[in-house]
Amino acid sequence: MNFSNNLDTAMNIDKTIFELQAEVCKSIASAKRLEIINALKTGEKSVTELVEILGVPKANVSQHLATMRNKGILKARRNGVNIYYSISSQKVIEACSLMREVLTEMMRDRKKMLKLIEI
Fold it and tell me: What is the pTM of this model?
């Protein structure tokens, strides 16, 4: 009976982790948010710097930043009137880079397949 309780507890923890993972993935399921993460991988940047890099209005950048900060992907610090954002964990950058590598490989494989079909 104790084994069954432990198994139920472990399964509930797994479900919770999967739900949290889905929420985090949803919060970065935007090309602009991925661009923000990419821009921040070299270190913290101010909102103004991010607006310049992304070429979108400050209101849009601020909204994306708030969403990712609320999910724990980014952290913020204020210095006078400026707010600086950075990635909360290096693992976020690693996960995004890994997915980018997977997608690049998939595109390369599709390109090879198309060349084979054309022959």
Answer: 0.80
Closest CA to 10 of 2, 100, 45: 2
Q: Which residues pair with 79 in a beta bridge?
A: 82
What is the bridge-based pairing of β-strands 82-87 and 74-79? antiparallel
Q: 54 Cβ partners below 8 Å, 6+ apart?
A: 32, 35, 36, 39, 61
For residues 48-65, give the mean pLDDT: 97
Q: How many residues does the chain have?
A: 119
Domain boundaries, the chain: 2-88
CATH 1.10.10.10 fits 2-88, yes or no: yes
Check: CB of residue 53 under 8 Å from CB of residue 46: no
Q: Sorting pLDDT into bands at 50, 70 and 90, what band is 9?
A: confident
